[in-house]
């Protein structure tokens, strides 16, 4: 198991190694640390907030979550459906409240993540352990392979979308405003909340929590769960991550069929997926269209697997997880 005492006791030597190698990304590292300080101040401010502000902070979880899942992930990174201008603009606003870097940069890193999963070119390579895949990668300079891979892929579709380029031009100031200040302004304007408690709770604390929910997709959903669609890949079906990441933890399916707008095999009645529900509602009223599914491809894959099984061909062996690989080396 990767989340071990050893993982934590190794932290000083890992930090020393990266310090000596000059690998630390100081601006991002300081920013992410500050985010956690602001989030913890938010915990202390919870008692000063009205119930309307607490409800607003709670609602901002799916609102900013959809900016990631429905917006930058399923629409802009994977083009799994097409969306009208009003929907793209709305999703860009939601994405700015989530404040995880511009749509352009997020989609670029994400396409690289899919093409080079679990290699040096993967920005949050889960082979380097839970903490690195979760948030450690933000504390370090990018591996040269990640930079090389980012230059090699095509992002012309992102350049052609004025909504994406508008947000990129205002980055990071617009996202910082939408993440921290805008939620507080709404609370002050509509139910007379004091500015700072709303800033720290609906802004800072909610932001810190949703960041971790997203990061769990890269850490937990790349390390723990089932692999019904592709046994050799790391990404897994993780129910808990799906709950926190508003439907984004069905990750074995997603890495097998990244063009699928549902990012899962089944409908919302059997797999928690409010992001799919939201896209379906938008499609019903004609605001999005061209929703792609991976189910036909999986029907063929499953039939092939069935034929192999009948012919006595064994399923490929799952790749060892990092902790298994380490213990295998020790045993040799
Ligand atoms: Zn992934
Ligand atoms: Zn993806």
From TrEMBL:
Q: Which UniProt keywords apply?
A: Fatty acid biosynthesis, Fatty acid metabolism, Iron, Lipid biosynthesis, Lipid metabolism, Membrane, Oxidoreductase, Transmembrane, Transmembrane helix
Quick check: keyword Oxidoreductase in the entry?
A: yes
Coiled-coil residues: none
Q: Name one GO biological process term.
A: fatty acid biosynthetic process
Q: Spell out the subcellular localization from the entry.
A: Membrane
Topology relative to the membrane: Multi-pass membrane protein
What are the TM regions of this chain, as residue ranges? 28-47, 54-76, 174-192, 198-217
Q: Which InterPro entries match?
A: Acyl-CoA_DS, FA_desaturase_dom
Query: Signal peptide location in the record?
Result: none
**Does Flavoprotein show up as a keyword for this record?**
no
Which GO-annotated molecular functions does the record name? oxidoreductase activity
What Gene Ontology cellular-component terms does the record carry? membrane
Question: Locate the Fatty acid desaturase domain: which residues?
Answer: 56-258
Outline the segment boundaries, as ranges, of region: Disordered.
308-332
Cofactor(s) the protein needs: Fe(2+)
Principal location listed in the UniProt entry: membrane
Q: Name one Pfam family in it.
A: FA_desaturase
- Free-text note on domains in this protein's UniProt record: The histidine box domains are involved in binding the catalytic metal ions.
Which family would the database say this protein is a member of?
Answer: Belongs to the fatty acid desaturase type 1 family.
What name goes with this protein?
A: Fatty acid desaturase domain-containing protein
Native species: Cyclostephanos tholiformis
């Amino acid at each position: 198991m990767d989340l071990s005492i050893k993982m934590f006791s190794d932290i000083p030597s890992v930090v020393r190694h990266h310090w000596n190698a000059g690998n630390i990304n100081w601006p991002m590292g300081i920013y992410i640390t500050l985010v956690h300080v602001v989030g913890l101040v938010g915990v202390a401010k919870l008692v000063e907030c009205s119930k309307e502000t607490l409800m607003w902070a709670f609602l901002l979880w799916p609102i900013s979550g959809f900016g990631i899942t429905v917006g930058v992930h399923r629409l802009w990174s994977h083009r799994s459906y097409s969306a009208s201008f009003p929907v793209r603009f709305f999703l860009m606003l939601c994405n700015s409240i989530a404040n995880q870097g511009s749509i352009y940069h997020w989609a670029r890193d994400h396409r690289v993540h899919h093409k080079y999963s679990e290699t040096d070119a993967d920005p949050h390579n889960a082979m380097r352990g839970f903490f690195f895949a979760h948030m450690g990668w933000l504390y370090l300079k990018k591996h040269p392979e990640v930079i090389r891979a980012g230059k090699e892929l095509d992002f012309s579709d992102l350049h052609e979308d004025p909504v994406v380029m508008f947000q990129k031009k205002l980055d990071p100031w617009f996202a910082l405003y939408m993440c921290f200040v805008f939620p507080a302004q709404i609370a002050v304007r509509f139910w007379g909340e004091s500015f700072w408690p709303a800033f720290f709770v609906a802004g800072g604390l909610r932001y810190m929590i949703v960041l971790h929910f997203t990061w769990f997709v890269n850490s937990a959903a790349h390390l723990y769960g089932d692999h019904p669609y592709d046994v050799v890949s790391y990404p897994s079906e993780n129910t808990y991550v799906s709950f926190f990441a508003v439907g984004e933890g069905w990750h074995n399916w997603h890495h097998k069929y990244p063009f699928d707008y549902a990012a899962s095999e089944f409908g919302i009645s059997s797999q928690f997926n409010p992001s799919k529900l939201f896209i379906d509602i938008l499609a019903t009223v004609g605001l999005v269209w061209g929703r792609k599914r991976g189910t036909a491809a999986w029907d063929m894959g499953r039939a092939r697997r069935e034929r192999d099984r009948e012919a006595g061909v064994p399923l490929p062996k799952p790749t060892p997880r990092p902790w298994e690989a380490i213990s295998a080396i020790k045993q040799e």
